[in-house]
Write a structure and sequence with these properties.
Blueprint lengths: L20 E5 L10 E6 L4 E6 L5 H11 L10 H9 L3 E8 L2 E10 L4 E8 L8 H15 L4 E7 L3 H9 L3 E10 L3 E9 L1 H5 L2
Parallel strand pairs: 6-7
Antiparallel strand pairs: 1-2, 2-3, 3-4, 4-5, 5-6, 7-9, 8-9
Helix pairs in contact: 1-2
The structure holds coenzyme A.
Length: 200
């Protein structure tokens, strides 16, 4: 896999006041870790995006169970989240509001595409552009690694999530019967990043 270079922080969400968005350079601990974090400040909170640590795995797993695997068997247990985070070709970014986990994204980088394995934003932090920022971060790091396709699966019944990804430029490509524990279908979605890379 090509080596990752400097990661350029994507543009802030248009709803955020530019005066409340600060860039904070940090050291990069690993190949795909972000070199910058963003502070998203609102009158109610200051949310920072930055690399997840192994110690965050249990909180990510619990939030994932509550937000993503509702009414399904809990498959993303702390052990499984930690195992993915340990993989060399994976990356995990979290949104944090002081000591609270506001959101997370886990991605894997393959030979030909990046794959979003898990994405969630806690209810009280939604519609602030946090989900969009985390997906953009995966897209930016994928392009730095020479990957121009981002793939994911989403529960077919999750209309809001499908709409969210559609708004971010993802197309529905397939439906997989019983993908989730044989109980529920998944919609496969992907975004071709080539147009993005040539427009920069
Ligand atoms: C999907 C999810 C990650 C979105 O996170 P978020 O931080 O609220 O999303 P953003 O604020 O970045 O939204 C970006 C755009 O997506 C669309 N969008 C987001 N949530 C939406 C919803 N509930 N209904 C319709 N459109 C939505 C909007 O167009 C929004 O832009 P706008 O606020 O300017 O209108 C969050 O709702 C979530 O965690 N859902 C449960 C878990 C899940 O389904 N994860 C995805 C599958 S793994």
């Amino acid at each position: 896999m090509p080596a990752a270079g400097r990661v350029t922080a994507p543009k802030p969400h248009p709803h955020l006041n530019a005066n409340n968005l600060q860039e904070c350079p940090i050291e990069s601990p690993g190949q795909f870790q972000p070199r910058r974090i963003w502070l998203l400040s609102t009158p109610m909170s200051t949310v920072t995006l930055g690399p997840a640590r192994m110690g965050d795995a249990p909180a990510i797993a619990h939030l994932s169970r509550d937000l993503i695997e509702t009414d399904l068997p809990w498959s993303w247990t702390p052990r499984r989240v930690a195992s993915l985070m340990r993989q060399r070709e994976s990356a995990a970014v979290i949104a944090r509001d002081q000591n609270r986990l506001a959101g997370f994204i886990l991605a894997q980088y393959g030979d030909e595409s990046a794959h979003i394995a898990l994405l969630g934003v806690a209810n009280e932090y939604r519609r602030q552009g946090i989900g969009r920022r985390m997906v953009q971060w995966v897209e930016e790091t994928a392009m730095v690694a020479g990957l121009f396709l981002v793939r994911l699966e989403v529960r077919a019944i999750k209309r809001e999530a499908r709409h969210f990804y559609a708004r971010l430029g993802y197309r529905e490509t397939d439906r997989v019967d019983g993908y989730y524990s044989g109980l529920e279908d998944a919609i496969k979605m992907s975004r071709d990043l080539r147009a993005l890379s040539t427009s920069k």
